[in-house]
Design goal:
Layout lengths: L8 H26 L4 H27 L7 H28 L7 H21 L7 H32 L3 H35 L1
Length: about 210
């Protein structure tokens, strides 16, 4: 039994966008692991973010040209908009690390990037299952897992900020890293927003 029988191309767009977000999330994770925030790397991440924008706009165009969409138009818009926003925050974080020229690395950013990438991978898994009614339980369970990751991100952020105020003597460096950490947490929060939208879609149509 098909979950949404009409206009399958929307699910192609969702999956294409999820793939692009995963690409950007992995690229950022590798940047943090190798402490590589060169202009070339940041530029490549910007290209990935732009490629995601193109997919999002293609989806919006198809939505306006399609009489019967597989899910409600407001849900399509909200889902695509929030998915695209994840990469906006990732790219914005990398730009800030590059611009701020932090004096010394902080390995806590790797922990945050790993949590973020785990949430992104779970979103991709859910999106891939969205076509079929039989996957509704898996989707709902995945949404719970993303919420759990978001909670883990909150706990990690509090610990990182506390550690910053205890050990960082340079006030400017403290402010730089505080903003960087908070920017990544915003990306994790948006992953939870995506899971809430997906949960609502499934509960509405299952």
């Amino acid at each position: 039994m098909r979950f949404f029988p009409k206009e399958e191309s929307f699910f192609d767009f969702f999956e294409e966008l999820a793939d692009k977000i995963e690409e950007g999330g992995l690229f950022f994770l590798e940047m943090t692991r190798h402490r590589n925030y060169t202009a070339a790397r940041v530029s490549r991440l910007k290209e990935i973010e732009h490629e995601a924008d193109v997919i999002a706009h293609k989806t919006y165009e198809r939505m306006h040209k399609t009489f019967l969409t597989p899910i409600d138009r407001e849900d399509i818009y909200a889902l695509v908009n929030k998915m695209d926003e994840i990469l906006d925050h990732i790219e914005g974080t990398a730009v800030r690390v590059y611009m701020y020229k932090v004096k010394k690395p902080n390995d806590d950013i790797v922990k945050q990037a790993e949590i973020l990438f785990s949430a992104i991978q779970k979103i991709k898994s859910i999106i891939q299952g969205l076509r079929n009614m039989k996957n509704s339980r898996m989707i709902l369970d995945g949404c719970v897992e993303i919420n759990t990751l978001e909670n883990a991100g909150d706990v990690a952020l509090r610990a990182m900020i506390t550690n910053l105020f205890i050990h960082e003597q340079d006030a400017i460096e403290l402010l730089k890293w505080k903003e960087i950490f908070e920017r990544i947490e915003e990306a994790i929060d948006v992953c939870e927003d995506v899971s809430n939208i997906l949960e609502g879609i499934v509960l509405k149509h299952a």
